[in-house]
Structure formats: structure tokens, C-alpha cells
């Protein structure tokens, strides 16, 4: 009682209701158009009601359904404003909250995981959660030594629910196309499914979080709360206050949004070389701005382990792209496996596809904006008959890097950040600032 909705019939029925609801609203909209209402108003109404139903159901189900909602929320900055506006608020809610578990269920999980005497480990324990996410919720407590701590508790049955959700959601690709036209929802689901096993293992997450906490200890720009205790389904870490990045996006001043965006960029670029890992879940709910001006970082359940840092060829090809030598870029992408040997790509289409990742590194200071990202998305769409997206192959070693960078650009555009993005790339991405990029590519590829 009170666990994740685990019965296949119940969860499938909720998810199955989504396309039925959309079909009904579409039919109603057609009737209104026939009745004389402007098509634009009808379309906006359908978008708004569809988004409200979709994200209400995703939030209620938690699990894989909610994880997909969080993943989609990052890309809303790429949508035209007339489409994104009606459901932006719904997406923001999904990043930070979900219906909580009943108190009896919380107590049962803690007894199963920590033993019947679990209360003796805490001086105080607030049984009402302060935050809830896709596979767990967080309670505030005071550890037995007096430290303020966050206790993350995994939802019972989360693993089974996640797997069931992914199977059902794979059938709803057309529905999510209403929200994000052109998005390869199947690819997003496949990548999310691969991360599930890692995120369900709180001991693995604790190891990653402790590594980050040690590396960024006493850092002037960042704070990562350290781990206090952990097992497979309960993770206790130091408490961290702060203003969520979603609040900065919605209400922050230009100076606050610029500062947050710069630190967000610096953390993502610095962590592979400093911690040997890339934070692979960069949605705004995992970042806080602290009163002392630092950025706090949460949730290390999904990380990309890069013990050698970023691949050196990554920065080298980025610099060569900026110099306009597309022949070398194409050759390098072939060597790395991004372009298969038998595929001939349209260079202009490739340039348009890569522009959102490269353009901010071409100038000393760059302003990210929703309008800029919308233009980039439209440019790629113009080349769709050439199938540039389907022509490219993403090697497994680059899957998470690509997803994090795409999501990061989306967050920066939500913030509207003006930042010296190029400086961060020069500082943290090997190969970008080399004097002889052609030689650097050759060395990177041969190595």
C-alpha cells in the first residue's frame, strides 16, 4: 500500500489514457475549427491540455514515466515560444516535485534497509519529504553527531516500475511528438533505460558523490555535499540549502542568471578532468545557488566515467570546425565512428547540425537564448530531407557526453546566460587550444 503503482494493468491504463485523451481533444478541436474558431487558438488549446495531462500522469507514476518527463523538460528551450509557453510551468513542476510516499511506507523502507532501530541513527527525522524525484524522495533529518542531513529513500518497486514504463512509453512516440516535433523519443528512452541499473544502486551513487565531494572540497565555485551513510536503497548525505536553478530561470536577475550559467558550464566541463566523471543528469533540479555565491550540485546517480577526461580528439575537432576545415572534421568524425565508411554526408547539413555545440566557442562572449536555439533547431529541420541526423552514428563512448552537452545547452538557453563560454572550453577541454590542431587530431586518432 502506498508503493509505486506496480500493477501492470493500473500503470498501463494510466499511460494508455494519454493518446486517447489527445485524440479526443483533437476531435473536439476539429469541431471548433469547423465552428469558426481560429486554427491557432484551437492548436494552442490542444497543446496546453495535452501537456497538462501528459505531465500530470508522468508525475503521478514517477519511475520511468517521470524520468522521461524530466528528460523532455530540458529540451523545451528549443521549441517555438507559441508552443513552449502553454506547458513550460508544467515542465518546471516536474523537475522538482512528485507525489510523496505515505509515512507508513517510509517507515517500512527504513526498517527494511537500516534495521528496526533506525531512529537511533538520527536525533531528528522529518517524516514529510522535502523533495521527490523519479525513483526516490528526500527527507530532512539530523544525524546522530548533530549534522543536518538529507535522507534519500528509494521508492519500493522502483526497478520493476521503471522497466514496465519504458516498454509502455515506447509505444507513445507519436504523442510526445506533439510536444517536441522531430525528437527521437525512442533514442531518449533507450538511453534512459541503460542508466536505470546504475541509478537504482545507491551504493554506486554514494561512491560517485563522495569522489566529487573530495575533489571539490573547499572549492571557491562549487559545493558537493558528502556522503554520511549509504546502502542499496537509502542514501544519507550532508544537507544543502540553496535556490534551485529552476527558480533562477524563472525569477533571477540577469546578473544571477549569468553567474549561474557560467558556473553550470564550468562544473560540467571541469568534472571529467578533475573527478574523472561527468555529471550525466544536468536538469535544473539538481543544481542550487548558495548564499555565498557558490553552486551546489546534487544527484550523482547518473555519471559518465571518464578516467582520462574528455577524449582529446573532441577539443581538436571543435577547434578545426571553427577554422572552417570541414574536410578534416569529416575525416576525424569518420575515424571516431560518427560517420560510417559508406556514408556520404552533406557538409552544409553537418555544419548546421553541429552549430549549437560549436558557435558559442567562436567568440569571446556568447549569449544563449531560447530564440537562438529555436533558430538552430529550425536550421537542422531545413536539412531533414538529407537525413543528416539518421546518417550520423553515435559511438557508445559518446552517448552520455552528447546527451549532457545537448541538455546543458538547453539549460543555458533557459537561463539566457551571457558568458565567456570559450574560456571554459580552452581551460578544460584538451585539444581545443593546441597550436597545431591538425597534428593533434592525428595523434588523438592514432592513440
What are the main properties of this structure?
447 residues, alpha+beta, Phosphorylase Kinase, domain 1, 6-stranded antiparallel sheet, 4-stranded mixed sheet, 19 helices, 56% helix, 11% strand, globular
Total count of helical runs of at least 4 residues: 19
Query: What percent strand?
Result: 5-15%
Number of domains: 3
Q: List unreliable stretches of 5+ residues.
A: 4-9, 11-44
Shape: globular
Mean pLDDT equals 77
Summarize the main sheet.
6 strands, antiparallel
- Structural class designation: alpha+beta
Helix content: 55-70%
C-alpha end-to-end distance: 55 Å
Query: What's the gyration radius in Å?
Result: 23 Å
Number of strands: 14
Task: Describe the 3D structure.
- With 447 residues, the chain is α+β, with helices and mostly antiparallel strands.
- The chain folds into three domains: 8-95 and 159-195, no CATH class; 103-158 and 201-238, Phosphorylase Kinase, domain 1, CATH 3.30.200.20; 312-446, no CATH class.
- The chain is built from 19 helices and 14 strands.
- It has helices spanning 8-34, 39-61, 63-74, 81-96, 103-114, 158-169, 173-176, 185-200, 202-215, 245-251, 254-275, 312-323, 326-336, 347-358, 370-382, 388-391, 399-415, 421-428, 437-446, and strands at 122-125, 131-132, 136-143, 148-154, 222-223, 227-230, 234-238, 243-244, 277-279, 287-289, 295-297, 303-305, 366-367, 418-419.
- Strands 1, 2, 3, 4, 6 and 7 form a six-stranded antiparallel β-sheet that branches. It has a four-stranded mixed β-sheet with strand order 5-11-10-8.
- α1 (8-34) runs parallel beside α6.
